[in-house]
Structures are given as C-alpha cells and as structure tokens.
Specification:
Strand content: 15-25%
Number of helices: 13
C-alpha cells in the first residue's frame, strides 16, 4: 500500500467562479473563462496532467463526474424529441443528440498528449465521491501511479459549467520505472461468478444461447412507441410487460439480476457490494412529463432499482453503447484495490422513442434487418433486453466455495478516435492489443465482435482485428456477432456478448452470425456464418464499441486456460 497525495487543483470552464472552499488553497490555479466548454475542458485537463511526473502524463486514467452535464444535455435532447413527435416528424440532423460527456474525453485525446483510460460517472448525488474513492483506492493499492479526478458542475446562476481537475499521485511516483499510468497487478484475479440475460428470446442466457446456435432471429415490429415516422421499423422486442406504473426497464433488470445472482450463488448482497449500471441516466426534472421518460431516466425517488445498495456504492456510467464494458473495467479495479468484495454490473435497453430517434437521425438503423459482417449490411436493428454480471476476486469466490464461470483476464477501455459515430480502427486495435497484453496472450480462440451491422463500423472492426492479427500472425481466428439474432442492445450490448463467451467456453462451440449471407473478407480472421465445434477453446475476446469514441475490448479465459505468450496458432 502507498499513500496518495494531491499537489494541485485546477479550475476553469465557461463560468469558472472559484468555490468558497477552494479560495484559500495555495495549490489552486484558476484559468480564464472560455466561450466553449470543450476548449475549457481540454485546457483544464491538460494543465492537471502537466502536474504529473513526465512519465505518467500520457497514460494517467481520468475519472470524470459529470451528472449536471448529462442532465442538461439529455434534457435538451428529450425536449427536441418530444417536439418532433408532437409535430409528427423525424428529428433534423441539427437536432441530433448533444454529445455525451465522454466526447469531452475524446476531444482531450484528439488534442494530443494523452491516451490513457477515461471514465465518466453520472450517479445522482454521488458521482464526485465515487470518482475520488476510485482514484484514492487504486493509487493506494498500486494499480495506478496516478489518476486525475475531474468534475463538471453547472453554474447555478447561468448556463455555464465549472470544470475542476485534481491529479492524485502515489507518494513514490516522482521517478516512475515505466511510462504508463498503470501497474501490472499480480497475485489476484477477477472472475465472473454469474450472468443474467433477457432478450427477445425470453428470460435466461441459455434460451438466448440455444436460439443463437439455431440461427433464429427475434425480429418484430415495435409496440412500445409509434415508429411510423422512422426509417426502420424492425426491432427485437421482448415480451416483458411491466406492472402498471412501473417502467419496462425495471422489469427487465429485475429478471436479469435475479438470474445472475442465482447463478453466482448469492442469496443476499454483502455490505461491500458495488453496483454499476449502464443504460439509464439521472433524473431529468425539466422533462419529467415527457412520454415514457422513465424508460431512460431514473425516477425522482430512485432507490437503486430495488437493489438496496447505498448511493455511494451505486454507480451510473455513461459511455454510449460501450457502457457495459467500461463498467466491468471499473468493477475490476474496485475489487482488486479492496474497495468492494462483490460487484454487480447491469445494463438495460428498453425500447423507447429517444434512443431510436437518435439512431434514426444518424441513419444508423437498418431499413430491413441487421446483417453483421455482411457485404450487404445496411444498419442496426435495435434490440430490447437487459443483462447482469457478478464479479469477485478468485480468492473471494474460493472462500465461499463457488466455482467461477470464467476469468476476466484482460480488459482495455479508451475514449479516443475521430467523429461522433465512427469506429476508429486504430483505437479499436489498441484496446484489443492491451487486453491481450494484460492477459499475457498473443492470440485467442474466438472473437465475439461488436459488429452492429453498420457500413462503417463492421468494416473498421475487421480492419482493427486484421491489424492485431498481422502483428501476431493470426491464422483464421473465428469471429461472429449476435446482433443479427437479438438486435443491438445499445448501452447493454456487452452483456449478450459476455454470455456468448461464457457458454462458448463451457460448451466448446462457436456460434454463427444470424442474418449473414455474404461475409466480408478479412486476412487474419474468418467470419462465421454457421456454428462450429471448437474443442480445446480456452480464450474469447469480446469487443464493445460506442458512439463518441468509446472503445473497449475484454478477454475471458476458462477451463484449462493458460498463458500462451509464444502461441501464434489462431
């Protein structure tokens, strides 16, 4: 263990009035107000990173508390959606969703000089506290030599924001032995002890797995909202009907979480449980009367979705469709640093007009049905569902006599790349490369691709895989995607991918890609149309990407999985 220290406080923004509690700090730097939040944010973070030892500046993780920003920008978007619906029209391109908070980190990475992990917390009442605990705990435990905590707070007297950034370093980090912000952890590992899933195929991971192997597609027309004004009207909707007065997302989450806890052998959540939630936003009081707003926003009397977890340990994370993977990365670090004994990561995608309108105006939805990795792919089929994953350290699982499903051997999350909706092959490849390195591997037995069925995204993902494959001489590593079967679960999209990985390791079977007819060409991987046996499978990579430069890759190992540093046999 080491003792963290704070050496500087940087304040800026579009309304950077210094808080009273900071005025007397000798280490305080207040930057001039800027007209644009993006400019101010990059300036504040760059100044904070400059306070770190030279070897840590480019790779130090940044944890951002941005509840106010998320509330304001999402409220504005919901208002535009409601106005468009009332007028019976589609959103205009100029009314597209305001950038998510993570896109500020994307701008920071694009400005140069920083390529570390970035995480955005939007938890009501507790985001800043959670960011501080994360930085202090992981630096104390030696997982990182430095982190930067950042908070965006709305100016109560206007429309501006104050940005505050504080670098947290280890007391002995003045002359680091390497040039990154993270240290390789040894001795402990994080395992998956339970998974839960609800999709258009019904409740349970096994139901989803059987239908995926059979090549079935859970396609239907939406009934949750009026889709008549949108380009595409094909979705993968569940049959779940919530009780009157309760949002569908709650019913979906309850089912998925119950299965995950049951599979993990957890009857009651222990006191030191971390709950990470993807797929909901904080309460939006300005638009509380918007139709079906409770499908994307928490209710005013939010009680952690019935989990009983106190607010300080209940996290909302915002990274678009990669939110689930970013949540797994956070949970891993909290477990390894001793901040929690158990972690439950959940995500939900309840069909609603707001998510659908965003994809429609970006022309990301398919007018027919998604065909991932297909030459004739035309876009996303939105899916409905929820997922949950229970994580703990291997030692904790052994102490309670539970056999894990798999080990989370590697995970990498980056907010970088160019453009709001484009997957950057360079950044995607970097995430895959880092996940492999963390696991001590150079190849995997199978890749479950993100592959939503978009023209640009699928091609960029295969390009990223080919780049990694070329470096390690991969020879036809198999890759497939579930999204032609159950649709794209948006913020919850990682959960079916993880369920596929766990069951592929268990059953030694590779799933195909429902809807695929003409596979795209690739040099170092081969796209699977139909299922195949794969005896001896020991490792699976799961990719998870999102709008706004959110990129993630994780690596699961199971059974006789060992370290294969020298292997190049795909």
């Amino acid at each position: 263990m080491t003792t963290p220290k704070v050496t500087a406080v940087i304040v800026g923004g579009t309304a950077p009035e210094t808080p009273d509690g900071l005025r007397s700090r000798p280490d305080l730097t207040v930057l001039p107000a800027r007209d644009r939040l993006t400019t101010a944010f990059v300036e504040v973070l760059a100044t904070a990173l400059d306070q770190l030892p030279a070897g840590l500046r480019t790779g130090a993780p940044v944890v951002m508390a941005a509840t106010d920003y998320c509330v304001q920008t999402t409220s504005r978007y919901v208002t535009r959606c409601a106005e468009a619906e009332a007028g019976g029209r589609r959103l205009r391109p100029s009314e597209a969703m305001t950038p998510e908070p993570a896109q500020l980190l994307q701008e920071l990475a694009e400005s140069g000089g920083w390529n570390g992990p970035g995480h955005v917390l939007i938890s009501p009442r507790a985001a800043a506290l959670q960011a501080w605990r994360w930085a202090w705990g992981t630096v104390s435990a030696g997982l990182h030599e430095a982190m930067v905590v950042c908070e965006l707070v709305h100016d109560p007297h206007g429309d501006g924001f104050r940005v505050t950034a504080v670098p947290v370093t280890a007391a002995d980090s003045a002359t680091p032995a390497h040039t990154g912000g993270s240290r390789r952890t040894t001795g402990s590992s994080v395992v998956l002890s339970g998974t839960g899933l609800v999709t258009a195929f019904g409740d349970g991971g096994d139901a989803f797995w059987r239908n995926l192997l059979d090549g079935r597609r859970g396609l239907s027309e939406p009934t949750r909202f009026d889709a008549s004004r949108f380009r595409g009207r094909t979705v993968c909707q569940t049959s779940v009907e919530a009780p009157p007065g309760s949002p569908t997302r709650r019913a979906l989450l309850d089912r998925a979480r119950s299965e995950a806890l049951r599979e993990a052998g957890v009857g009651q959540l222990p006191a030191r449980t971390l709950l990470v939630m993807a797929g909901v936003v904080p309460h939006l009081p300005r638009v509380g009367d918007a139709p079906r707003i409770d499908e994307i926003a928490l209710e005013p009397d939010w009680d952690d979705d019935g989990s009983g977890i106190p607010p300080r340990d209940a996290v909302l994370m915002a990274h678009a469709c990669a939110s689930g993977a970013f949540g797994l990365a956070m949970a891993r670090e909290w477990l390894l640093s001793g901040l929690a004994d158990l972690a439950v990561v959940t995500g939900v995608s309840s069909l609603n007009t707001y998510d659908y309108a965003c994809l429609d105006v970006l022309r990301a939805t398919s007018t027919t049905a998604a065909r991932p990795f297909d030459e004739d792919r035309s876009g996303v089929t939105v899916g409905e569902g929820a997922g949950a994953i229970v994580l703990e350290t291997a030692e904790h699982a052994a102490a309670r006599g539970h056999t894990p499903l798999a080990t989370l051997s590697g995970i990498s999350c980056r907010v970088a790349g160019q453009g709001v909706s484009r997957l950057d092959a360079h950044t995607g490849a970097a995430c895959m490369r880092e996940a492999l390195a963390m696991a001590g591997l150079t190849t995997v037995d199978y890749v479950h691709g993100h592959a939503p069925g978009t023209r640009q995204g699928d091609e960029a993902e295969l390009l990223a895989l080919d780049r990694v494959g070329a470096e390690h001489d991969w020879r036809g590593v198999p890759v497939s995607s579930y999204k032609g079967a159950a649709g794209h679960l948006l913020h919850a999209s990682v959960f079916p991918g993880v369920v596929v990985a766990v069951r592929a390791l268990r059953d030694q079977v590779l799933p195909g890609t429902p809807g695929l007819r003409k596979p795209l060409d690739a040099r170092h991987v081969r796209v699977l149309r139909d299922p195949e046996p794969c005896d001896g499978m020991r490792s699976v990579m799961v990719n998870n990407f999102g709008f706004g430069g959110n990129n993630a890759a994780l690596l699961l190992t199971g059974g006789a999985a060992g370290r294969r540093e020298g292997s190049t046999d795909g």
